[in-house]
Amino acid sequence: MKALIISVGTGIKPSGRTIENLAEAITKSIRHHNPHKVYLVATKESIETTVQKIIPKIKPIESEIIRIESPDNIQTIYENLRSKIKEIREKYDTLTVDYTSGTKAMTAALTILATIFGADELSYITGKRNAGIIQPGTEQIVPIRPYFILAEQKIKEATQLFNRNQFPATITILQQIKETIKDSDIIDRIMPLLDLAKAYEQWDKFYHEKAYKIIKRIKIPELSGNKQFLGTLISNLEKTDGEPEPYYIADLINNAERRSEESKYDDAVARLYRTIELIAQYKLRKNYGINTSNVDVKKIPKELLQEWGIPQDQKTIKLGLNNSYELLNALGDALGRQYQNDKKLKDLLSKRNTSILAHGQTPIAKQTYIQLHKKTLEYANATVRNLEQLIKNSKFIKWG
Q1: In terms of domains, do 191 and 62 share one?
Q2: SS (H, E, C) 285-306
Q3: Among 63, 123, 20, 68, which residue's Cα sits nearest to residue 10?
Q4: Of 7, 199, 206, 213, which residue is most buried, by most CB within 10 angstroms?
Q5: Which of 199, 217, 235 is the last residue of a domain?
Q6: 400 domain residue, yes or no
Q7: How does DSSP classify residue 265?
Q8: How far apart, in whole angstroms, are the C-alpha atoms of residue 308 and residue 207?
Q9: Are residues 105 and 61 in the same domain?
Q10: Residue 197: is it exposed, middle or buried by C-beta count within 10 angstroms (0-12/13-18/19+)?
Q11: 61 with 80, same domain?
Q12: Is residue 250 part of a domain?
């Protein structure tokens, strides 16, 4: 089913002849497009003149008149037509809008609405004019595909979503453009952003290898740091003596920052909590050869085992955040000693433990995130030699 919406004016100097010529040009446009129904957008004056000459000429095509007030007020026309054009667009499979005739405000409002509601085609009648009216026998109908305007709108929306870390939504919009628009220039333009959104979606969920497979193919100079970070992280994971922890620490800090940008402070603090824990785990593994997920009790001072209430016949234990730092302190490590005396950090971590995403019902405030972020950087800088560079290399770029 196809609909045609066409604006109808009276010409610059209305007279019997000019109105007749205008009606004939509009009639030719209607017959050319051959819609199931035509909607004539007209004023009181054009209804009483031009429209009356058009309707008999276009039978048996069904027609409907949409009357507008204030033909020179684009805002009023827009508000007048918006709901009706939305209704037409939803009812018909194909929609063409011809904006040749009418006041400048009428044609401008129609063009804007046609773009907003995704008209399949814009149409314009050209030819030799006299008093603003195309002369009979010179008419030429010029079709315009407005997809590039729609594409621009969607690309802008996708870019804004990308820069707000809304990668699934970005992918959905760009994939729709790719599937519906066959213009090679537009496809070439969106593909790097689409691929990067897919890579960042995986990276944001800590699927580093999947992200790297995508991102290493994208030829954008600004991604050199990202590529180096992911490539080295994966290399460290493959080595038996590799050290992936510094990369995870930097990555978690950036991930927390992205959550904070969305005001998801519970999520952000959960990531910082894990970072504080990972810092202790890294320190124990690197300096003391202790894996916190399976610790030989012989490596733990007896007084600490007694304090923790570990049975004498137990061979191995698993350490959480607090116990990891207590073990570092018992081993004489400066980081462990710092933690033991850090009442501020312990208070911040306890707020995480009482949050909705942990064990309580209290949402995390923005200030808690800011303070814990500062503390996390303090502990991370004391443990990771090149933390600043790692954070820089693992930061997601913005598109613009």
Answers
A1: no
A2: HHHHCCCCCCEEHHHCCHHHHH
A3: 20
A4: 7
A5: 217
A6: no
A7: H
A8: 36
A9: yes
A10: buried
A11: yes
A12: yes
Distance, CA of 127 to CA of 140 (rounded, Å): 6
Q: Which domain CATH number covers 56?
A: 3.40.50.10770
CB 236 within 8 A of CB 242: yes
Residue 230 maps to a domain = yes
Domain end among 145, 175, 202: 145
The per-residue b/e assignment along 77-106, b for 16 or more CB within 10 angstroms, e otherwise, is bbebbeebbeebbeebeebbbbbbbbbebb
How many separate domains does the chain show?
A: 3
For the chain, residues with pLDDT lower than 70 are 12-15, 127, 129-136, 138-139, 358-361
Report residue 1 as tokens. 């089913």
Residue 132, pLDDT score: 57
Q: What is the pTM of this model?
A: 0.76
Q: How far from each other are the two terminal CA atoms of the chain, in whole angstroms?
A: 40
Q: Give dist(CA 363, CA 355) in Å, integer.
A: 5
Specify the residue for token string 């790692």.
Answer: 390
In the structure encoding, which two tokens stand for residue 204, read together?
């944001």
Contacts of 281 (CB under 8 A, 6+ apart): 245, 292, 324
**Amino acid in the structure at residue 146:** P
On whether residue 398 sits in a domain, the answer given is no
Structure confidence at residue 352 (pLDDT): 81
pLDDT at residue number 125: 76
Residues 393/226, Cβ–Cβ less than 8 Å: yes
d(CA 398, CA 396): 7
Task: Kindly state whether residues 284 and 383 are assigned to the same domain.
Answer: yes
Provide the pLDDT for residue 14: 59
Looking at the structure, do residues 169 and 271 belong to the same domain, yes or no? no
By residue range, what is the domain housing residue 91? 2-145
What is the strand order of the sheet 94-98 is part of?
62-67, 37-42, 2-8, 94-98, 121-126, 140-144
Greatest alpha-carbon pair distance for the chain in Å reads: 110
DSSP state of 261: H
Q: Same domain, yes or no, for 99 and 171?
A: no
- Note whether 354 and 360 are within 8 A (CB): yes
